[in-house]
Amino acid sequence: MSIITIVGSGMMGSAMSVPAADNGHQIRLVGTPLDREIIASVQKNRYHPRLDFTLPEAVQAYQIEQLQEVLPGSDLLIGGISSFGIKWFEEQVLPLLPDRLPVLLVTKGLEAQPDGNLLPFPLAIGSRLAQPRPLHAIGGPCTSYELIRRQHTAVAFCGSDLELLQWQRKLLATEYYHVRCTTDVKGLECAVALKNAYALAVTMAVGMTERQHGIDCPEFYNPAAALFGQSVREMGRLIRLLGGQPDCISYAAGDLYVTVYGGRTRKLGRLLGRGLSFQEAKKELADVTLESVAIVSSTAQALRQQAASGRVRLEDYPLLMMLDAIINHQAEVQVPWDRFGE
Amino acid sequence: MSIITIVGSGMMGSAMSVPAADNGHQIRLVGTPLDREIIASVQKNRYHPRLDFTLPEAVQAYQIEQLQEVLPGSDLLIGGISSFGIKWFEEQVLPLLPDRLPVLLVTKGLEAQPDGNLLPFPLAIGSRLAQPRPLHAIGGPCTSYELIRRQHTAVAFCGSDLELLQWQRKLLATEYYHVRCTTDVKGLECAVALKNAYALAVTMAVGMTERQHGIDCPEFYNPAAALFGQSVREMGRLIRLLGGQPDCISYAAGDLYVTVYGGRTRKLGRLLGRGLSFQEAKKELADVTLESVAIVSSTAQALRQQAASGRVRLEDYPLLMMLDAIINHQAEVQVPWDRFGE
User: Fold this and answer.
1) Does the ipTM exceed 0.90?
2) Which of A19, A62, A176, B2 could form a disulfide with B75 if both were Cys (CB 3.0 to 4.6 A apart)?
3) Which domains does chain B have, with CATH numbers?
């Protein structure tokens, strides 16, 4: 039995308590300042309102002010924050942690570097740490509401220390939560971050069909499949460009497959495909913050910077540049079908 | 205006008449001996019963006995047969064709070679021709019923003669039918043949969920996404093993995406996932012949043969070997989740 502290009680962070509890561990779930109501509810009767699910008995919930209380004795800290909370996590949480406490992040995202490179969070944050510490991350297709229902889920843990990764796998892997370990941090993290961007492109096909044939039309798959294939092509190029191994395209593809089925990214892609401008679509979605939008913008900006110095050709990324044009330059949807496969 | 002769009036062969007609060509649609009723119907009022669709006015239909009548003047011959008809096409049709008539196949499949290699049909057949002739093929995600509805569709034409491929693209590409040309025959054809095998594995997830949660349960995506990712990984390995370029994984992924949504392969995968044996599932599907089953068997056999001589490791293909065990060795579904990513 180990003690696993999860900081961030959003859907994915909280869902990690299920495999952890199934393996007999104690879980200390600490909310961020944005999670007050969730934590209050879990403290009352273990009910998680956003997951609509009663968390395991092994879960104890704490408000953020109690973080320092719960750290002693913790064997592993899971960072359960989204990419929008990663700066807070780096500045407010990491400095409080005991030196040797390993950290495993569920956060997906790439940080733009001054030279036009993009670094996965564990590497970007790791490079700034005064005191080096193992920063690992989880990638792969996993929706929280299926994880809590113990559906078969295959993910990878990545980081520099393979032995430590394998120990973390031992803590968390179950008969339904399948974990691979890899030291290819760039490959895995680029793959799972980029799929959010490209899911926007694939789901546009749904909206385009609705625009053409009416909202109740049968779903067509040829256009989405064309966009899916081109997404895999561009993600493969980006993974190599950013220093990852080619095999990580399999994580990107599997993760893209699950992301296009639901959630806010699909809603946004569908609205854009119907012909709404990005501003109109954002209004319709009540201005929710979307990781897909952030990753499109940072990747496009990095590519432009690298293209300016002749290191990449923007023509190799027609879908990403289309997404950037829609999101950041008020462009209409204009799928560059005939440039696919170039 | 050119004259395009299509041999084989199944769904995909016949659907090719739509972009051809939209480009102003005359189409001579010749049925195989199995297509008599379809041809009779098209001759009567251009109605194609299996597509439930009235073919363009530019289509003239002919029974197989009229093949030699319609060949003179033809500029291009499209082979619209399935892999089960390819031997017939090679033996009965190819020898009748004028020497310089280019052939473009919609057929997907790999032919086992005595040395344990697998060759795409255009290369396997091409190597046996007494008189060399350009044999080209179409690959990529394209369902016939969406093509006839002019949905955006992105495919590739492959063959050895790039100039001839580009001329064929000019004949057939439209504002909705997008065509790339590639000389990577092995890569493209392996990709689009293999996706039929792996679609069986991905769709098993649907049946497994139904078995666990009942037939009316919501669909879960984590298991299918895990299978999808592993499929992409194994297809990538197979494409390289069989001599294709890595970029073709994007065709395999896009094509897998569309194939898991519907059709007979999904039906079979679902039944197997529910726990039916292959024999029981085949009976339920009224013994339809499935390209997915054929490609699983021939690929597994080739891998075993290559493994015996130390050229591959069967452990690198756990999903394919699972499919082979179910189809050819009466095994139950036992997904090797923990071997994914190895």
Assistant:
1) yes
2) B2
3) 3-183 (3.40.50.720), 186-339 (1.10.1040.10)
